[in-house]
Design a protein that fits this description.
The chain is α+β, with helices and mostly antiparallel strands and about 290 residues long. It has two domains: about 80 residues, no CATH class; about 190 residues, no CATH class. Helix content is about 35%, strand content about 20%. Strands 3, 4, 5, 6, 7 and 8 form a six-stranded mixed beta sheet that branches. Strands 1-2 form a two-stranded antiparallel ribbon. It is elongated. About 15% of the residues are buried.
């Protein structure tokens, strides 16, 4: 059973008896989040090199429990915990049917018309205008188009219900446009794609002649759609959470959309944890520089 609350004295004793990683795994929390919780409640914890020195039998200094802090105060760690089932993704988590039609969402209103057949012979994924920010971006074949739009419809319905703004913009790390959802002022990119597999195509007589002449043929291997969709998010996540949700055998992507929404929330929360940690490290560095 998970620990949800712990007294300040018990937490103090635990962090000086075991490394944060050990306690984090035991309590199903992330080490960084646990460290920030200790700092928030002014509970001392071992510094860098403590466990290495202790393992080698060298003398170590233990910071005493603060006299100003009550030993019996209970600290809630449930907000930092994640379910063990989240790691296995073995539980179905479907999203409800949208209550509003497709046309009620501006980024979906014209999505069907935005998807066009590729112009190149050996491309099989539908294309969209490179700079079109009026519709969500999606990379799927004609066969998976309706299914992909239905998935986006379900996702946007939940995002709209939670008042999470959704937009299409160019990511700092990508050359093309991507979908972005804003959760608690944190931007998280996400995209729906169809998996591809590389196969050798049957060469025509003309292809064989060119191969004989030039030593190789053009596009002897091509990427064809597999009919399997996957959702990806571009944001930090604690261990146990995945940035990719895949179609699985007997476990479709539609069955896992709830997990994806949960991962978006976790990513937004974890982004704040990491930002606070970086800010504290920078503050320490500036103080050292000043000295």
């Amino acid at each position: 059973m998970k620990t949800t609350t712990i007294s300040a004295s018990e937490l103090y004793e635990s962090v000086w008896q075991h490394p944060l990683k050990f306690l984090a795994d035991k309590w199903y929390v992330h080490p960084h989040a646990l460290g920030l919780l200790l700092d928030k409640h002014r509970i001392p914890r071992p510094g860098n090199g403590y466990w290495a020195k202790k393992s080698m039998g060298k003398p170590v200094v233990v910071t005493p429990f603060p006299k100003s802090l009550s030993t019996n105060i209970l600290i809630d760690i449930s907000c930092l915990q994640f379910a063990k089932a989240q790691k296995s993704k073995s539980v179905k988590a479907q999203l409800p049917n949208p209550t509003k039609s497709l046309g009620k969402y501006p980024l979906l209103k014209g999505i069907k018309g935005s998807l066009r057949k590729p112009s190149f012979q050996w491309d099989f994924l539908l294309t969209q205008d490179f700079n079109d920010t009026n519709v969500l971006r999606v990379d799927v074949s004609q066969e998976q188009k309706d299914r992909a739009i239905n998935i986006l419809h379900r996702l946007l319905a939940v995002m709209d219900k939670n008042n999470w703004p959704v937009l299409v913009e160019k990511s700092r790390y990508e050359r093309r446009l991507t979908n972005v959802v804003i959760i608690d002022d944190e931007k998280i990119s996400f995209r729906l794609r169809e998996k591809l597999k590389q196969v050798k195509r049957e060469l025509t007589e003309k292809d064989l002649e060119e191969k004989k002449k030039w030593g190789r043929g053009w596009y002897e291997k091509i990427n064809i759609p597999r009919g399997e969709l996957h959702l990806t998010l571009d944001g930090p996540l604690p261990s146990g959470f995945s940035q990719v949700i895949l179609d699985k055998k007997n476990f479709s992507l539609e069955d896992q959309l709830g997990h994806f929404i949960h991962n978006l929330i976790v990513s937004a929360e974890y982004s704040k944890v990491l930002r606070k940690e970086r800010e504290e490290e920078q503050a320490i560095y500036r103080r050292k520089q000043a000295v």
